[in-house]
Amino acid sequence: MEPTSLGLNTLLSIIILISFIVTVVLAAASYTAYKLRERRRPRPALGSETENVYFERYFPPTVDDAGSGPPA
Amino acid sequence: MRPRYLLVLFIGVLVMLLAVTAMVYLISRIPFAGQGLVLFLGVTMLLVFLVILIIRYLSLMWLGYLHHIETKIVDPPEESPYEPLVTIIVPAFNEEAVIDSAVQSLLELDYPAYEILVVDDGSSDGTAARVSALEGHYGDVTIRLVSKENGGKAAALNTGIALARHPFVLCMDGDSRLTPPTLRYAMRHFRDPRVAAVAGNVKVVNRRNLWTKLQALEYIEGLNMARRAQGFLRAVNIIPGPIGIFRRDVLTQVGGYDTDTFAEDADLTLKLLTAGYHVIFEDQAIAYTEAPEELLDLLKQRYRWTRGILQSLMKRKAWLFLPKHGAAIWASLLFMFFEAILWPAANILGNLVFAIAALEAGVATYVLYWWLLLTLLDVTAAAYTIAMEEEDLWLIPYAVVYRYLFIATIDVTKLLATVEEFLGVRMTWGKLQRAGRI
Question: Among A48, A53, A57, which Cα is nearest to B253's?
Answer without folding.
Answer: A57
